[in-house]
Amino acid sequence: PAVAAAMRLGAVVSALRPALPLLLGLSLGCSLSLLRASWSHGAAEERCLAPGPPAPPARGALPEAAEGRPGPGHEDFRPRIVPYYRDPNKPYKKVLRTRYIQTELGFHERLFVAVLTSKATLNTLAVAVNKTVAHHFPRLLYFTGLRSAKVPHGMVLVAHGDERPIWLMFETMNYIHQHFGSDYDWFYIMQDDTYAQAEQVKALVTHLSINQDVYLGRAEEFIGGDEQARYCHGGFGYLLSRSLLLKLHPHLDSCRNEILSVRPDEWLGRCIIDFLGITCVSQLQGQHYHTYELAKNTELEKEEEEDFQAALAVHPVSDMTLMYRLHKRFSRIQLDRVYQEIQDLQVQIRNLTALTPAGEAGVTWPVGINAPFLPKSRFEVISWDYFTEQHLFSCPDGSPKCELSGASKADVSEIIESAVEQLNRRYQPLLRFSKRQLLNGYRRFDPTRGMEYTLDLLLEAATQKGHSHVLAKRVSLVRPLSKVEIIPMPYVTEATRVQLVLPLTVQDLDFVANFLDMFAMNTLDTHDNALLTLLFIYHPYDAQRVGQVDVFAGVKAMVGELEKRYAEVKIPWISVKTEVPSQVKLMDIVSKKHPVDTLFFLASVWTEINMEFLNRCRMNTISNWQVFFPVHFQEFNPALVYRGEQTASSNTDFLRDGHFDRHSFAEACFYNSDYMTARSKLAADILDRDEVLESMEVFDVFLHYSGLHLFRAVEPGLVQKYTLRSCNPRLSEELYHRCVLSNLEGLASRSHLAMALFEQEQANST
């Protein structure tokens, strides 16, 4: 039995031998955990039983609450659930949310810039600052004591009424705190005789923490003062954090009464030091505030010092010309840095691409730019536009040939110059090229990479020995898409009232009932903030018989029924007698009967009004900035599209069974004030030649006589049923031609027309 037991034990040990390390590790871990728990428990008991008040925390340590919970220093980092409670005795009130989440979360803008100027330098140095760096900063204001009679265009000026330097600084700090203290994280103060590298200043604030009180600039010693205290020299600009500005504001009045100084920057520095104990520094959080003091007769074009090239601010700048020269020099330095960075990145891309499975064949041209778009079918092929130095053979109006002018001509000239420059850069000093002629030019826009060009150039190549030879060379160029920027737009709301204007002729009577039904269902029933004005256009013959037979009597009866159904709604109408219903003349009549701040929507009788489009009309139309001309979706002729089959009813099919009518400019959204301004310029141009108005539409008025943005975009929410429009032959040739084209292209698509012809031929053959 003993031998058998020993054999069984040996078998068990041999079976457990692979698991012995795991068992030993678990045992050791459990033992250490129990020991650590007992030590911690004992320390906690001793601390709880210790007599007397608790010891204060060590300096720099955060206090902790009872039961191991985070103390006050951690409260901002813990999520808190605020319970919702509503008093049942109070009436329910709808909570108004902010339009942007940035406002609700309390986000601040990054940088505010204040420029201190004077009446003497407002039209000189301040203008130079505005033209060189103002467009790089998100918000920039000019502060002066007294203002001149005329403020330069494009400058936001704040005048305090006193030219004393200390008073100007005091009022400026008060103004910044009152109007912008809660909106921005950083405040940069500079003088108008300072040149600041805007991009470098913006990059500086992105690397600084907003949780510290920052007083950053060129540190200078006080005259006869404390050796440790420093103020920031105003000529080189200085940066203040929002937290410092908030702490400083309560002490500004005391500083004005107690601190005597001649220089405003010294006064501000002494105020910050005395009341906040913060001195100016030139280096903070690893970031340096580099400055450069400009000497007289400095040759900027030859200045190669490292301090100059790294400077964020240069002072003093004595005149406008010097300011522009500085801007040109620093722009060239920045451009050279960017080009060098691009070259370094291209070298890295080549080296890394060689290690990829595709190898060197995977390198695209130009290096770092997306590869050309590869079409998946013949319908996705991007066509090339042919051009010469004088003509373009793909014109916007559809004509086969037009003169090269404006931006297109400047684009072609710049591309040719760039091609010759690149050739000379590659082959000099062995060869030097000069352009003789552009033989052929091709360009196309690739949305994945930019504008592509292919040029056949006739060049004259000259050698170092003076020999020349004429040759033809083909070059390819790409103008890549640059960084996408958000265009700043004025703030608009969806609460603006829309005034619909509907011109009606005798030919439109069959469609008025449907228009009024859709208007009542989508605006009156939903209480949308929209009104309607009808414009009855009488032919002179019908106007003479209006006492016996009113052709618009049925429409007026329908309007009366709507007003009875909706007691609070009034639908006015205006009667006009004319043979040629010019859109501009009709709009002149309507404009005079409405306030200048009215938002008009010029509609057509085939338009189906809905809330979705009216909101886009409000959002896309900005007073004194932008007008909106939507491109409606025109459904095809159902007799040709379906040929007796059931029509499509789903929302996804209507985009297939129609097209966006780019020939129609009947619908428009604009403000009355913008129309009146453009119309007055038109009146001064044409004088008393009213016949010119018959060849124009409202779109032409805004296009040629206003500086506003014309926003022309497809509008899927503006759908019109198919109908054959009547084109008035008394209109201008261009307007009549556009009307005919709209009718023809609105019949059906090419495939539908082809099937209709095929079926007709089959029917004729049988």
From TrEMBL:
<dbReference type="GO" id="GO:0032580">
    <property type="term" value="C:Golgi cisterna membrane"/>
</dbReference>
<feature type="region of interest" description="Disordered">
    <location>
        <begin position="48"/>
        <end position="80"/>
    </location>
</feature>
<feature type="compositionally biased region" description="Low complexity">
    <location>
        <begin position="58"/>
        <end position="69"/>
    </location>
</feature>
<dbReference type="Pfam" id="PF05679">
    <property type="entry name" value="CHGN"/>
</dbReference>
<dbReference type="InterPro" id="IPR051227">
    <property type="entry name" value="CS_glycosyltransferase"/>
</dbReference>
<keyword id="KW-0812">Transmembrane</keyword>
<keyword id="KW-1133">Transmembrane helix</keyword>
<dbReference type="GO" id="GO:0047238">
    <property type="term" value="F:glucuronosyl-N-acetylgalactosaminyl-proteoglycan 4-beta-N-acetylgalactosaminyltransferase activity"/>
</dbReference>
<keyword id="KW-0325">Glycoprotein</keyword>
<keyword id="KW-0735">Signal-anchor</keyword>
<keyword id="KW-0808">Transferase</keyword>
<dbReference type="InterPro" id="IPR008428">
    <property type="entry name" value="Chond_GalNAc"/>
</dbReference>
<comment type="similarity">
    <text>Belongs to the chondroitin N-acetylgalactosaminyltransferase family.</text>
</comment>
<keyword id="KW-0333">Golgi apparatus</keyword>
<protein>
    <recommendedName>
        <fullName>Hexosyltransferase</fullName>
        <ecNumber>2.4.1.-</ecNumber>
    </recommendedName>
</protein>
<keyword id="KW-0472">Membrane</keyword>
<dbReference type="GO" id="GO:0050510">
    <property type="term" value="F:N-acetylgalactosaminyl-proteoglycan 3-beta-glucuronosyltransferase activity"/>
</dbReference>
